[in-house]
Design goal:
The protein is an alpha+beta fold. Helix content is 33%, strand content 26%. The protein has 7 helices and 12 strands. A hairpin with a 2-residue loop joins strand 11 and strand 12 (226-229). The longest helix is centred in the N-terminal third of the chain and has 15 residues, at 69-83. The relative contact order is 0.16.
């Protein structure tokens, strides 16, 4: 079964960000045969003076396949308690893919527009029977953790930080190779015109598919008669 782990605020100004920590967690779960990681997305939340955050106020969602959610939950808690930076306000959530409610999706949308509270995050998680816990500091990371699950499940927000094999792609490949090797679902223009399987695309050094309509979507453009992924700035703009 598929589960989503929402994670936020594991870092401080001197440490690596939450995205890096979640990639480490994915590796750790796989190495210990507790779950099969299938993707990690980054979600940009509201930046506002009333919200404490380290650098960009983004959270992360790790999708896994597992038959042992209890073990995954305990392992994730243990890992984040051990690895979260000093001074962080880490929070973690776990939800069954098929049980994520519309209320959780709405909470994720609101987190991009409003200043939300820890109490609201706890209530949303409780009503939806999601596991939710603050682990370090003020526990404020539960807000972003609940939001990450809602935004990922809704399927139209964020960019992929990791997919199996994705970061090994650093050259020119046919579309069918990108999809097979990097677990990308779709390669298309920003106007959503799909490229043929045989089309060659230069993926560059910063390949980040966007979560669109529930699919890992790699946007490309034609420059000087060559297909390339769109610029980093455009990827960030479209994924936020």
């Amino acid at each position: 079964m598929r589960y989503l782990l929402g994670i936020d605020d594991t870092d401080n100004l001197e440490s690596r960000g939450t995205g890096h920590r979640v990639r480490q967690l994915a590796d750790w779960l796989a190495e210990n045969q507790l779950a099969t990681p299938v993707g990690i997305t980054r979600h940009q939340l509201l930046v506002d003076p009333g919200i404490p955050y380290t650098s960009h106020n983004s959270s992360a969602c790790l999708a896994v396949e597992t038959d042992n959610p209890d073990d995954v939950w305990e392992a994730a808690r243990e890992f984040l308690l051990r690895e979260s930076a000093v001074g962080s306000d880490a929070g973690v959530t776990l939800a069954d893919w098929n049980s994520i409610s519309d209320e959780v999706l709405d909470f994720g949308r609101r987190a991009k527009l409003e200043v939300l509270t820890m109490s609201a995050a706890e209530q949303t998680a409780s009503k939806s029977r999601m596991r939710c816990e603050g682990l370090t500091g003020t526990h404020g990371g539960i807000i972003g953790a609940v939001s990450a699950i809602g935004l990922h499940r809704a399927g139209n927000d964020g960019r992929y930080l990791w997919l199996p094999g994705l970061r090994d792609l650093k050259d020119k490949y046919q579309v069918k190779e990108i999809c097979a090797m990097g677990h990308v679902d779709r390669v298309c223009t920003v106007e959503h015109i799909d490229l043929s399987n045989e089309t060659i695309v230069d993926v560059g050094e910063w390949i980040r598919p966007i979560l669109h309509e529930g699919k890992a979507t790699l946007y490309v453009e034609e420059i000087d008669h060559e297909w390339r992924i769109i610029s980093k700035d455009r990827i960030k703009s479209l994924s936020n």
